[in-house]
Design brief:
Radius of gyration of chain B: 43 Å
Distance between the termini of chain A: 72 Å
Structural class of chain B: mainly alpha
Oligomer: heterodimer
Structural class of chain A: mainly alpha
Largest interface: A-B, 83 and 72 residues
Order of helices and strands of chain A: HHHHEHHHHHHHH
Number of helices of chain B: 10
Low-confidence stretches of chain B: 29-42, 65-94
CATH architecture of the largest domain in chain A: Up-down Bundle
Number of domains of chain A: 2
Largest sheet of chain B: none
Number of strands of chain A: 1
Strand content of chain B: under 5%
Largest sheet of chain A: none
CATH superfamily of the largest domain in chain A: Cytochrome Bc1 Complex, Chain C
Number of strands of chain B: 1
Helix content of chain A: 55-70%
Strand content of chain A: under 5%
Helix content of chain B: 55-70%
Shape of chain A: flat
Shape of chain B: elongated
Distance between the termini of chain B: 71 Å
Number of helices of chain A: 12
CATH topology of the largest domain in chain A: Cytochrome Bc1 Complex, Chain C
Mean pLDDT of chain A: 91
Low-confidence stretches of chain A: none
Chain lengths: 261, 268
């Protein structure tokens, strides 16, 4: 008893914590979650081999190789624009899912739902703001990413096709933003979309048909809202994810990001 | 310490023993009979005709025009060279090929003569690479964090617009498209809707897609691509200026206004 009293309580807590850590890190459950080489495994040490394992033995291997060219990690080269576009897409997905819990895409309910979301849902206004500003930011970052890639000549062989996919992704980003524009069902949404869709109607040969299909009628109404809602929350994100997968895969297959100037 | 396999140790020992006995024989042989010198040359595994060829080549290089003569006397030349080398005893540093050294009385053997690069051609130059973890992952994490905090703070202080309920009977003046389409709406002022809304943007997208196939210039250095860069800058500025005019300089009736006089007619 006297012995335990002598040991300072601080070391005892530290001992207990380290003991607990050992126990958790040694458990079957922990080791089944974190594969060999994970930084969360017991006894991880910083070595070239382990640095390789961190990527090789994690889901990140789908996105990143084990090593990249030294200049590729320079922020001044990429300005992180492509990665940030992808990150904003993720942020928009997360905030968008939150908004979906409080929104019904009918002309009678849509505006009221947004209003209620802003006034009586915890963090409702904040999340809606983040979704809105994040969308504008993504349009901007995708556009700047395209400019950056062009000015570095990064679209040249063997990356021609990835540039084409990038242009498709830029178009998809604009479509995602534009379909989301209608959903609040306020004066801004209605008339902005009216102006936009009137232009589609002028497409030669099949313009009026396309407009009819998009609007679900001759004029914007509650059917349009449902259509654009489905396009915005499912159809375009689905297509975008497929093209992004090909885009990222091609970045690696074409030899990583382009060389230094 | 790693265990060396038994058979390798044995082999090494045998080689050492052999190396210890051989030089003695060579040393005793060489001075014994001078006549055995050509035989010793034959014992060095470099074939005599190759030695002869290199000798004549050297002579030709040195003699220039006297190449033929040097070639004729080649045989004798080799013999003397070998003789001097062997009389030098076990001295390896003599001008000729090293003779008495190593277990077999020689240090190397010539297998074949090949042109440089015919066996292996190293194409992949070693690149200066860094590990993705931690170098790239940390940079990405910081960028994502900065982006999130910016978005969070901006969203905290600036509210997204929510105007009154949509009303088909109340057309706002002006009615504007989302900002990224305001360039097109600006074009609508000057062109037929089909041209402004379909042809020009369609051409723009089409040209962007074709850009890598039209640009045959392989360089990515800015000084080599002045034309491409100028063209793209013009293209981007064209849209940027149109969007800015459409956003800030168009008021009621989509007529021209100055934002610092009439105020903004712009909602994000």
């Amino acid at each position: 008893m006297a012995k335990t009293m002598q040991g300072s309580p601080k070391t005892k807590i530290q001992d207990k914590v380290s003991q607990l850590t050992d126990q958790v890190q040694g458990s079957q459950a922990w080791n089944s979650i974190f594969r060999p080489g994970s930084i969360f495994r017991k006894g991880y040490s910083d070595s070239p081999r382990n640095r390789s394992y961190v990527i090789m033995n994690s889901v990140l291997y789908h996105l990143h190789p084990v090593k990249v060219k030294r200049h590729a990690v320079k922020v001044s080269y990429t300005l992180c624009l492509g990665g940030l576009s992808f990150f904003l897409f993720i942020v928009l997905t997360v905030t968008g899912i939150f908004l979906m819990f409080f929104y019904r895409p009918t002309a009678a309910q849509a505006w009221d739902d947004i209003y209620t979301l802003q006034t009586s849902v915890t963090f409702g206004l904040l999340v809606r703001n983040m979704h809105r500003w994040g969308a504008h930011l993504m349009v901007l970052s995708v556009f700047l990413h395209m400019a950056r890639v062009f000015y570095h000549g990064a679209y040249k062989a063997p990356r021609e096709f990835n540039w084409v996919i990038g242009v498709v992704l830029l178009t998809l980003t604009l479509l995602l933003s534009f379909t989301g524009y209608l959903l609040p069902w306020d004066q801004l949404a209605l008339w902005a979309v009216t102006v936009g869709t009137n232009m589609i109607g002028y497409t030669p040969v099949f313009g009026s048909q396309v407009r009819f299909v998009l609007l679900g009628g001759a004029e914007i109404g509650t059917d349009t809202l449902l259509r654009w809602y489905v396009l915005h929350v499912l159809f375009f994100p689905f297509i975008t994810v497929i093209f992004m997968a090909i885009h990222f895969w091609r970045v690696r297959k074409d030899g990583g990001i382009s060389g230094p100037l | 310490m790693t265990e060396v396999p038994e058979h390798l140790l044995k082999r090494a020992k045998a080689a050492r023993d052999k190396a210890a006995t051989q030089p003695e024989e060579a040393a005793s042989d060489a001075p014994a009979d001078e006549a055995a010198a050509p035989a010793a040359a034959g014992d060095s595994r470099i074939p005599a005709h190759l030695l002869e060829r290199s000798k004549s080549a050297k002579a030709r290089k040195a003699g220039g025009g006297d190449a033929d003569a040097a070639a004729d006397s080649g045989g004798g030349g080799t013999a003397t060279a070998v003789a001097t080398a062997s009389t030098g005893g076990a001295v390896v540093t003599a001008g000729g090929p090293p003779l008495a050294a190593g277990p077999g009385g020689h240090t190397q053997r010539l297998l074949t003569v090949v042109k440089a690069g015919s066996i292996q051609d190293v194409k992949a130059k070693p690149q200066d690479k860094v590990h993705v973890w931690p170098h790239l992952i940390v940079a990405e994490f910081v960028a994502a964090l900065a982006c999130t905090s910016f978005l969070l703070f901006f969203s905290w202080f600036v509210n997204a617009p929510l105007l009154e309920l949509a009303d088909f009977n109340k057309t706002p003046n002006p009615s504007k498209a989302p900002w990224y389409f305001l360039g097109l709406q600006e074009l609508l002022v000057y062109f037929h809707p089909m041209v402004a809304g379909v042809t020009i943007p369609g051409m723009g997208i089409f040209l962007l897609i074709l850009a890598p196939y039209m640009d045959k210039n392989p360089s990515n250095k800015p000084e080599d691509r002045k034309f491409a860069i100028s063209l793209m800058t013009l293209f981007l500025m064209f849209w940027a200026v149109l969007v800015i005019i459409g956003s800030f300089f168009r008021g009621p009736g989509f007529n021209f206004t100055l934002p610092w006089i009439d105020g903004l007619f712009f909602e994000l």
